[in-house]
Amino acid sequence: MKILMLTWEYPPRVVGGISRVVYDLSRTLLKDGHEVTVVTYKEGDAPEFEDDKGVKVYRVNNYMINPNNFIDWIMQLNFNLVAKASEIIATEGKFDVIHAHDWLVTYAAKTLKQSFNIPLVATIHATEAGRNSGIHDDVQRYINDTEWLLTYESTDVIVNSNYMKCELQRLFGLPFDKINVIPNGINLNNFTGIDRDYDFRRQYAMDNEKIILYLGRLVYEKGIQHLIAAMPKVLAGYHDAKLIIAGKGGMIDELRAEADSLGLGDKIYFAGYLGGKDVEKMYKAADISVFPSTYEPFGIVALEGMLAERPIVVSDAGGLGEIVEHKVTGMKSYCGNSNSIADAILELLYDHKLCAEITKKAKNKVRNEYNWSKISQDTHFAYQKAICQSMAEKQKRELEQERAKKTKKAKNTEKEITNLLDFKKRHAYA
What we know:
With 430 residues, the chain is α/β, with parallel strands linked by helices. It contains 15 helices and 14 strands. The chain folds into two domains: 2-181, Rossmann fold, CATH 3.40.50; 198-369, Glycogen Phosphorylase B (Rossmann fold).
């Protein structure tokens, strides 16, 4: 099967979780015998074309140097995605399916679908209404409407959790049978051969300190503000603890100010963005990983913590609540409740037996349920479903057109007979 992936982020461009999902899914589909082409945005010195171990990656420049606004930039990006994909189709032939990832590539996906009659499958990784607890301004309304358009134009829609399935049904009125729940996955080879690096760990904490780790974007919906607010209670119950916040985002200054206002400048360390093997080293350096999101469609970072054999604390929000079973594969806290977060952390800090049981069961769950081999097969099934449905719809249209032609021909014949009889009748009396 020839598959076209449309995405606005792909390594080395990493903004959120979409980049890693498209990367791992593409490589696994290739391994399963499919031909995968990715068309994405070019950032920095990344090559315009790359054969990424069999995955063909085309990157487009956005020539609008100073766009009037974000929407103009998006439209220019979509125009360039269409141009590049059309060029590929002209030289390499038509694709069997288009897989569009999130709203930013909506117009390119729609145009290519209609121009080349290719079935369209879309993955909605998150919604604007979910991220912002509603729609509050014109830009958010535009994004929300574009998300709806992508789901409407798609033959099938993929989401990563049952929570997201319900959200799309509620927001956009999608029928449940149009939505496929396929979770995100993780490379099971991550952390292979990676042990705790004490020299690396000492860059962030003393040997006697227990590291509580947050790793991810520093944005409101990730709930880091609630984790920081939980730290006075954690430290009151367990003095030798330290919070490491690894990531970047628009809230960095606000979060630093909050940590300083609590007098915890020496107990909360902002490590900045970590990439490559440093991510794996940090998970291994940590004693507990915490993901306190207020909105989270899925949560790949939780899978990473589980695979790293570190106990995790998650808020009972969205997809996170589906990944973790409380006190079985992790700890759950009430969403947005700093006291609940602190209680979960403290229980893990003191109950070593519980930690050991959780980490073992969590790792097994990741290996059994969130491996890319299974996810690739499920995605391929969604492609086949979309292709069959598209063919059925085409046949239905052709039958309707043929039926309309026959009806029109019958009416014309009837009209001719009627006119002939009228003619004969008039001349019979003449």
